[in-house]
Amino acid sequence: MTNEILEPGMMVRHPLMPEWGIGQVQSRIGDRITVTFPDAGKQVLDGRRVTLEIIIC
Questions:
Q1: Spatial distance between the Cα atoms of 30 and 55, rounded to a whole number of angstroms
Q2: What does the domain layout of the chain look like in residue ranges?
Q3: What's the Cα-to-Cα distance from 57 to each of 18, 31, 44, 45, rounded to whole Å?
Q4: What is the Rg, in whole angstroms, of the alpha carbon atoms belonging to the chain?
Q5: Cross-referenced InterPro entries, in alphabetical order (predicted)?
Q6: Buried residues in 39-56 as b, exposed as e (16+ CB within 10 A)
């Protein structure tokens, strides 16, 4: 699962909410992932329900 390699600072996109824009991972504790998105603010996501897309810059 891709979420297991997420680290603070990585850029990601929510595959079901592309309108949120590209977000930056703030933390990952187990399956709980906190990401700040430009158009949705800080979101705490359940990594068991969504696999975030990593953005390679």
A1: 21
A2: 2-54
A3: 17, 24, 23, 22
A4: 10
A5: DUF3553
A6: eeeeeebebeeeebeeee
Task: Tell me the sheet residues that pair with 28.
Answer: 33
**What does residue 9 show for φ and ψ, rounded to 5 degrees?**
100, -20
pTM, 2 dp:
0.93
Q: How confident is the model at residue 2 (pLDDT cuts 50, 70, 90)?
A: confident
Number of H helices and E strands in the chain, helices first, is 0, 5
Cα 52 from Cα 45, distance rounded (Å): 10
The mean pLDDT of 34-47, rounded to a whole number, is 97
